[in-house]
Amino acid sequence: MFPCWSDGPRPTGRDVPPCAGWVGPTALLCLYGFCSTVRPIEPFLTEFLTGGDKNLTTRQVRVGSFMGVVRITDFAWMRTRGLRLTFFMTPPVTRQVFPVWTYSSLVLLAPVLLLTDALRYKPAIVLQGLTCVTAFLLLILGSGVRSAQAAFFFYSVAMATDVAYFSYIYTLVPPGYYQRATSYVKGAVLLGNAVGSLLGQLLVSLGGVSLLWLAFLTLVFLSVALITSCFLPMPKSGLFPAGAPPAQQGASGGGTQTSERWTVPTWVQSVKTTMRRLASDCQECYSSVGVVFFCVWAATGRCGFYQVVGYVQVLWAHIQPHNASAYNGGVDAISTLTGAAGTVAVGHVSLEWSTWGELVLGGSTFLLAVALFLMDWTGSVGVSYACFFLFKTLYMPLTAICS
Q1: pLDDT, tens digit, for every residue of 172-231?
Q2: In this structure, are strands 66-70 and 85-88 parallel, antiparallel, or unpaired?
Q3: Burial class (CB in 10 A: 0-12, 13-18, 19+), 332
């Protein structure tokens, strides 16, 4: 969520390249969003990391006074030496790999948010595509915990740059087309997510395709997204109209300083001006208790959603019956589609959200908590699937209410 606009100038369609209009950038951004979210391997990522391809199903063991992490293939060698092993059920995927993804995203969000507008969005989108490709290259070609940690660090960089993707369109599209462009962009992301999950499920269940080939297919779609991002037009200005370079200021003032270089001191001054503008916008926006309430819910809900999506596969792998078929992709695809339908429905509901919004959020959040409790309490993977379906279907419309 972004600070609201104060009385300063707002972005208009004057900065749109004549050959592009608003349709061209929107179409390219939708293509990028679709291809970057078609990731057939994602619903089976934990299974891929802990399976035979990567063999990260290690355990912490104690051998005498030594305690460390070893591979399953080392257990037999230790037993032949008569060593006494004490096992601790803490796979490195849970303890060492996924936390890199979680905490790196948290640390990177603030600096990426500030740099995105200064870089005028397109470089950040290209960076997102590049880091996604790098992450899956490391997952496919690398081996061991360190390689997986590096892959998830790059993956967290890609997640942090989501702000560039969802904000870029507002720098090129005239305000009158904001609603249409936003619906197209969000629809492309949701469609790509659903197609990727469903494709992965069908290839695994019906085609017998290995998870390694799903990872390769994911890499192909991400590569297409990276190539698409290079053709996006470069905005001439950011969303926050603060701190233009002196060369541009001189050009607008009469052309007497058009050759002036943007030195480091002026760049620092531009950053200070931008920070003051952000502080002023935040003070204006968050003076309302209702706005603060919705923003806090949106921020904490988003963090909780990413935690659930990231770790639910570990839970399913733990309670999944031996040799049973996994339907992670199917559940994720169906819940994405129903959540998207709920999001569209919310936009057509005639309700005074300023009056009833808190009650709706409170009741729905209680249902989300119940679903999470049942997911952890039940020993049935079917019930866990149903709870995740309820969780994701409810969460997505709530984000639209907060917007």
Answers
A1: 788 777 777 877 888 888 889 999 999 999 998 888 888 899 999 999 999 999 999 999
A2: unpaired
A3: buried
User: What predicted TM-score, i.e. pTM, was given to this entire model?
Assistant: 0.72
Of residues 59, 76, 78, the one with CA closest to residue 68: 59
- From CA 16, how far away is CA 45, in angstroms rounded? 40
SS3 call for 399: helix
Per-residue pLDDT tens digits for 264-299: 566 667 667 767 777 776 777 667 776 777 777 877
Which residues lie below 8 Å from residue 76, measured CB to CB, with a gap of 6+? Answer: none
Crossing angle, helix 264-285 and helix 98-118, to 10 degrees?
Answer: 110
Say whether 385 sits in a helix, a strand or coil. helix
Q: Which residue's structure tokens are 């339907």? A: 327
CA dihedral sign of residues 46, 52, 56, 57: positive
Q: Return the ∠ at Cα 166 (arms to 164 and 172), rounded to 5°.
A: 85
329, 194 Cβ separation under 8 angstroms: no
3-state SS class at 248: helix
Phi-psi region of 83 (alpha: psi -120 to 50; beta: other; left: phi over 0): beta
From the number of C-beta atoms within 10 Å of its C-beta (0-12, 13-18, 19+), residue 286 rates as: middle
The more confident residue out of 126 and 359 is: 126
Residue 140, judged by CB atoms within 10 A of its CB (0-12, 13-18, 19+), counts as middle
Spatial separation of the C-alpha atoms in residues 276 and 352, rounded to whole Å: 34
SS3 304: helix
Cβ atoms of 165 and 129 closer than 8 Å: no
Dist. CA 253–CA 37, nearest whole Å:
44
